[in-house]
């Protein structure tokens, strides 16, 4: 019998992409957006390497490494870096296909999240959910803003893929996104003061 996957206990990754980048541009201008892009890229790499490594490590270190190696996103990142470093031109038809797939990704992920929440029938208001949606203050404005973003839907996908507590994660995504309508505005209003502390 395979070992049980770990339950969700750590704070899941924040939605620094679709949600955070436009807010960073609005609140901090181009320099803030540049910083937010770096934070976003680091969080994506960590989410899709460290997350699966930890989720898959219930079967040992080798199982954790195999879990990371099986992820298509890891191979896509490697291929994109290789194409970029070697300056390989991407044919127009392939580029358009990739763009269409990229545009379809978020709606499909959100549909999957909605199905999970619909099956649960309610939000799971537990300690881990409230921990996941709480704000985390850091010294720099960009990090504070990134930390104030709602829980990323990628956390739900990883939890579901590795048999973790996907109901808790789905509830954290939904509740933190709703709460961010107020909390993101509050953090943006406080950014000038936070900047003075940095």
Automatic annotation (TrEMBL):
Domain of life: Bacteria
Biological process according to GO: transmembrane transport
InterPro entries to which the protein is assigned, alphabetical: Mem_transp_PIN-like (IPR004776)
Membrane-crossing segments per the record: 36-55, 67-86, 98-118, 138-157, 169-191
Subcellular location: Membrane
Keywords: Cell membrane, Membrane, Transmembrane, Transmembrane helix, Transport
One Pfam family from the record: Mem_trans
GO CC term, one of those recorded: membrane
Major localisation: membrane
Presence of the UniProt keyword Transmembrane in the record: yes
Topological relation to the membrane, as annotated: Multi-pass membrane protein
Protein name: Transporter
């Amino acid at each position: 019998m395979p070992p049980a996957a770990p339950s969700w206990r750590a704070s899941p990754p924040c939605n620094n992409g679709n949600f955070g980048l436009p807010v960073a541009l609005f609140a901090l201008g181009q320099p803030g957006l540049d910083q937010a892009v770096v934070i976003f890229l680091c969080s994506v790499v960590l989410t899709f390497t460290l997350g699966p490594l930890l989720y898959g490590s219930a079967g040992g270190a080798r199982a954790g490494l195999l879990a990371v190696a099986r992820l298509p996103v890891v191979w896509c990142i490697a291929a994109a870096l290789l194409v970029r470093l070697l300056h390989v031109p991407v044919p127009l038809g392939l580029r358009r296909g990739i763009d269409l797939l990229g545009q379809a990704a978020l709606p499909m992920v959100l549909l999957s999240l909605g199905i999970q929440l619909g099956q649960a029938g309610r939000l799971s208001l537990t300690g881990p959910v409230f921990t996941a949606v709480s704000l985390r203050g850091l010294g720099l404005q960009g990090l504070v803003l990134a930390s104030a973003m709602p829980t990323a839907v990628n956390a739900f996908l990883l939890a579901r893929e590795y048999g973790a507590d996907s109901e808790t994660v789905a509830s954290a995504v939904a509740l933190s996104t709703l709460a961010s309508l107020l909390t993101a505005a509050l953090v943006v209003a406080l950014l000038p003061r936070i900047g003075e502390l940095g």
